[in-house]
Write a structure and sequence with these properties.
It is a single chain. This protein has helices spanning 13-23, 42-50, 60-65, 76-88, 91-98, 127-133, 219-228, 233-238; strands at 2-6, 28-31, 54-56, 103-106, 109-112, 141-143, 151-155, 163-166, 174-175, 181-184, 198-204, 209-215. It is an alpha/beta fold. The chain has one domain: Metallo-dependent phosphatases (Purple Acid Phosphatase, chain A, domain 2, 4-Layer Sandwich).
Length: 243
């Protein structure tokens, strides 16, 4: 089967649609959380995801938007955007977000948003954090989001005391071997690695390969929608720079 792996859509429908078109036919979508927050199209993004065969776990912005996290823990811009997203969401879409699990296991893959140790909040940015987290999941691979940056962490020893960060090879399938990996597909709706293109991955479980991809989208359309709703200017401007 062919799976679309994505995370951190953040109410950016233009980016989401660009990813779906670029990915082509897939058997199922695996979403690693933060469907909403920051952007101008929460209902459109939730509805589009729900229209497909998919699995989804909860992200911190999903939980904040439905009131399961204290918004005082977020920076002012994120807090304002989440409150706006909450006001826009239909009761059905709010109920969907509230129902999302923290983790899912599908065969050799554990799916979550933050980290195996703290599925909602912890960021895995460094290899040292990955080292600790390898002992907190039992499958061969773990798929995470949250940092908005595509990366692969590889466990180098079975005892989990050493790991390294690998830069993804864009548009080139990487063979999934027997080494344990923590894989981040990057962000669809708000990349933060200096590349404004939407980021995602394709998993082919028959070929046992994973391919990271980037695709351009009309970020100026998303920006115009955000400006029309008076969403925070910093959130608007960052889309064109990928930070």
């Amino acid at each position: 089967m062919r799976y679309l792996i994505l995370s951190d859509i953040h109410s950016n429908l233009e980016a989401f649609e660009a990813v779906l078109e670029d990915a082509g036919p897939v058997d199922q979508v695996w979403c690693l959380g933060d469907v909403v927050g920051y952007g101008p199209d929460p209902n459109g993004c939730v509805a589009r995801l729900r229209s497909m065969d998919h699995l989804c776990v909860a992200g911190n912005h999903d939980w904040a938007t439905v009131g399961k996290l204290d918004l005082s823990d977020f920076n002012p811009d994120a807090r304002e955007a989440n409150l706006w997203n909450r006001e826009q969401l239909t009761p059905s879409n709010l109920a969907y977000l509230e129902s999302l699990p923290e983790t899912l296991v599908q065969g050799d893959f554990t799916l979550l948003h933050g980290s195996p140790r703290h599925p909602i909040w912890e960021y895995i940015i460094y290899a040292s954090t990955a080292e600790i987290n390898f002992e907190h999941f039992d499958t061969l691979y773990c798929l995470v989001g949250h940092t908005h940056t595509p990366v692969i962490f590889r466990q180098q020893r079975d005892d989990g005391q050493s790991s390294e960060a690998l830069a993804p090879l864009l548009n080139k399938p990487r063979e999934l071997g027997s080494e344990r990996l923590i894989i981040n597909p990057g962000s669809v709706g708000q990349p933060r690695d200096g590349d404004p293109r939407a980021s995602y991955a394709i998993l082919d479980d028959e070929a046992r390969t994973l391919e990271h991809r980037r695709v351009s989208y009309p970020w100026e359309k998303t920006q115009a929608k955000m400006m029309g709703q008076d969403l925070p200017l910093r959130l608007v401007l960052r889309l064109q720079y990928g930070w």
